[in-house]
Design brief:
Layout lengths: L4 H10 L5 H11 E9 L2 E4 L1 H15 L2 E4 L4 E3 L2 E9 L5 E11 L5 E8 L7
Parallel strand pairs: 1-7
Antiparallel strand pairs: 1-2, 3-5, 4-5, 5-6, 6-7
Length: 121
């Protein structure tokens, strides 16, 4: 599998970029043109829709996302963690993302999860 750090870095930077044109440029480097993004609150297809979604989240929350782990991978699946930070530096939410890459090395599918799974009783 190719070097993952630049892909994850560009994706993470997109979640910090308030300028839509700059954010779309970052997504063009790391996200497939017709890639699919899902999380508990959204389902979008394509980098332009993802760019719009990220912009709306950044505006609504006034926060920013930081990647908090190295990417871990096996076969064709990559996993990394992140958190969203509020303007006062409080952590708003933590999460896990699982991605698959296309043949060009861009994210073709991303499934995001908020928080950790509930432990068994």
């Amino acid at each position: 599998m190719q070097e993952l750090k630049p892909i994850i870095a560009d994706y993470g930077a997109a979640w910090q970029e308030k300028d839509a044109d700059k954010r779309l440029d970052l997504l063009t480097r790391c996200f497939s043109e017709n890639g699919r993004y899902v999380d508990p609150t959204a389902e979008v297809t394509g980098r332009e829709q993802l760019c719009t979604h990220i912009g709306a989240v950044l505006k609504e929350t006034e926060g920013r996302v930081e990647i908090t782990s190295e990417p871990a991978s096996h076969h064709d699946v990559v996993h990394f963690t992140w958190h969203m930070i509020a303007p006062d530096a409080a952590i708003m939410v933590k999460g896990h993302d699982f991605i698959r890459l296309d043949s060009d090395g861009r994210i073709v599918h991303l499934a995001g999860f908020f928080g950790d799974p509930t432990p068994l009783d």
